Structure to design on (388 residues):
């Protein structure tokens, strides 16, 4: 009889069944630990601020030179209005060759594919490298107590990692057509524009913070950032909210508010952008009767792992399995790779991201099997390098 741990589709279905909405892992971390212990992994589960994380290592009997880590998350975003779903979002229903459920794409399927790939190489191959699993249930939220804590734990316990693959969905149309070698950074700003309250019929006696804010936003939007770089598209600054909270139509309010976000490439950092924007603020404040202030939040710096051994090996493994020539990307939102890149080379590779975070999130069953095959090929190639 086929066991769940031998079948990436059954394992995906099993993992979807855990209602692991960030940061609650709903027992999925213990379940994964029990599977990998059967494969000979030594697992350590620890909690920080209620977030459960799993660090597990498998080592060959002989000395090893390198350790490949896989990083993934079992937490999912909430399903939203459940009756909008065709089936229960935690059922993992399989219909017409697709598996449905929250996390089917992002990213329980990828965790399942990697675990089964590991299972197969450990039982079938002669291995001389070590494997580490960094599994968290805090990626979709603030990500404060997830991968960051796992890396801290690893450093404290002298657990060395040579390379890391993050299983986030990165493919565009076909599994293997795109891997991510970096990510843009993200900086948000919350603007307060202070004016002077007054009667709307006597604007000369007031300072209108709404109109002044509009002027400021125009300046902000016209900031020249860059024209893109070797691996990145141009950075972009976008306004996300504009508010006054003003209920009275005959009053010029005292304050107005707006927020924006910058997705930036490797030509900037949060601090260089803040400096640039602050310069715009001081110029604006000099020429205006209103005063603009901004509070910033840096959610991640941009980074890139220059193409090298790790990405080459992944590209070769994809080509050997699917015959696809895969391309590099640095697009999309942030991911836990932003923490890992401070420790070792990291690339991201997973399924087609089409329906992630959507109602009726789903993926092709065949894609999960294919992803498992590519991971397996990659693990074999990674091992081969050390055997030479
Ligand atoms: Zn994800």
């Amino acid at each position: 009889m086929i066991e769940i741990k031998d079948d990436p589709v059954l394992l995906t279905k099993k993992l979807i069944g855990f209602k692991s909405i960030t940061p609650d892992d709903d027992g999925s971390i213990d379940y994964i630990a029990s599977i990998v212990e059967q494969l000979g992994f030594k697992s350590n589960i620890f909690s920080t601020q209620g977030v459960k994380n799993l660090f597990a290592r498998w080592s060959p009997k002989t000395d090893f030179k390198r350790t490949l880590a896989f990083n993934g998350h079992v937490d999912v975003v909430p399903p939203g209005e459940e009756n909008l779903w065709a089936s229960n979002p935690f059922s993992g229903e399989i219909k017409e060759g697709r598996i449905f459920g929250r996390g089917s794409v992002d990213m329980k399927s990828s965790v399942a594919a990697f675990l089964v790939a590991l299972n197969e190489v450990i039982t079938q191959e002669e291995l001389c490298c070590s494997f580490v699993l960094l599994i968290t249930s805090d990626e979709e939220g603030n990500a404060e107590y997830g991968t960051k804590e796992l890396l801290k734990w690893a450093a404290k316990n002298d657990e060395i990692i040579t390379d890391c693959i993050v299983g986030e969905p990165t493919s565009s149309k076909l599994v293997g057509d795109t891997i991510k070698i970096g990510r843009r950074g993200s900086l948000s700003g919350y603007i307060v524009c202070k004016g002077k309250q007054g009667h709307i019929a006597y604007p000369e006696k007031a300072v209108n913070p709404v109109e002044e804010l509009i002027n400021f936003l125009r300046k902000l939007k016209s900031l020249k950032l860059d024209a893109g770089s070797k691996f990145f598209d141009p950075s972009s600054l976008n306004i996300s909210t504009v508010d006054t909270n003003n209920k009275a139509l005959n009053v010029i309010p005292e304050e107005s508010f707006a927020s924006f976000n910058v997705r930036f490439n490797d030509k900037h950092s949060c601090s260089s952008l803040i400096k640039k924007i602050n310069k715009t603020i001081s110029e604006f404040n000099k020429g205006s009767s209103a005063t603009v202030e901004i509070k910033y939040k840096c959610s991640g710096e941009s980074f890139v792992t220059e193409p090298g051994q790790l990405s080459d090996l992944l590209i070769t493994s994809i080509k050997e399995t699917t015959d696809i020539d895969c391309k590099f990307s640095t697009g999309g939102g942030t991911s836990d790779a932003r923490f890992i890149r401070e420790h070792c080379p990291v690339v991201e590779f997973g399924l087609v991201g089409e329906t992630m975070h959507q109602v009726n999130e789903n993926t092709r069953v065949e894609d999960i099997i294919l992803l498992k095959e590519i991971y397996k090929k990659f693990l074999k190639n990674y091992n081969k390098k050390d055997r030479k």
